[in-house]
Amino acid sequence: MRDINFLVEQATKIRKDIVQMICKSKSGHPGGSLSAADIVTALYFSEMNIDPKNPKMEGRDRFVLSKGHAAPVLYSALAERGYFDRELLGTLRAYGSPLQGHPDMKKLPGIEISTGSLGQGLSVANGMALSARISGENYRTYVLMGDGELQEGQVWEAAMSAAHFKLDSICAFVDSNNLQIDGNVDKIMGVEPLDKKWEAFGWNVIMIDGHNFQEIFDALDKARETKGQPTVIIAKTVKGKGVSFMENVCGFHGVAPTCEETERAIAELEKVSEI
């Protein structure tokens, strides 16, 4: 279903969950979770072939959250889709909770792979895509990386491999918000020009506004139609998107909002729901 109004509403719900979960846990990564909310919403509520009632369904599409510290956005999407009870969201990062600071495939249904060590997700996606080819399955594999994460050398080894093996069932997203834990990506270790780099590595490259659902879906359609090479969608996003005082603020990469800040954030997001 590609009802844009419905998807905007879902993305807003996810953003509310992110802020509230991290506030309650007093730790977490709001900035990069909020920036990825629209991409994750598009995948989980429209694009991917999945069944929350049968998380291990044969032929299901796979999702790899390579930037595993953005786990809150994934947890909210899974809960909203019915993989587990929403009440669990209030236990983020609590001792013994299945909702740990990074996704754990052994603790929650719907998690395809445990992630957290940056740079490894694309390699895992390659393995999933090769497995599909060997077994004759036609599922697609989606992977979400951060732009700061692209400073990891393993990403580019995996990029070479995916192009070499013509893994056209892979669709990678780069959440390009130009901020990482210590500041601006282009000042810490510049990764631009991303489009030319990925093209040089043999990928089909699409540049979009990562908060525009129509652009997201147009890119996903083009990715599905592309044969013989993997696709990367470079999504320009805003760190902390949806919460004015968090937007483009490096400090909210890994700092929980206070109770007062959370109230302000929810009030802003409620206004989006009313539009």
Automatic annotation (TrEMBL):
<protein>
    <recommendedName>
        <fullName>Transketolase N-terminal domain-containing protein</fullName>
    </recommendedName>
</protein>
<dbReference type="GO" id="GO:0016740">
    <property type="term" value="F:transferase activity"/>
</dbReference>
<keyword id="KW-0786">Thiamine pyrophosphate</keyword>
<dbReference type="InterPro" id="IPR029061">
    <property type="entry name" value="THDP-binding"/>
</dbReference>
<keyword id="KW-0479">Metal-binding</keyword>
<keyword id="KW-0808">Transferase</keyword>
<dbReference type="InterPro" id="IPR005474">
    <property type="entry name" value="Transketolase_N"/>
</dbReference>
<feature type="domain" description="Transketolase N-terminal">
    <location>
        <begin position="12"/>
        <end position="262"/>
    </location>
</feature>
<comment type="similarity">
    <text>Belongs to the transketolase family.</text>
</comment>
<dbReference type="InterPro" id="IPR049557">
    <property type="entry name" value="Transketolase_CS"/>
</dbReference>
<dbReference type="Pfam" id="PF00456">
    <property type="entry name" value="Transketolase_N"/>
</dbReference>
<dbReference type="GO" id="GO:0046872">
    <property type="term" value="F:metal ion binding"/>
</dbReference>
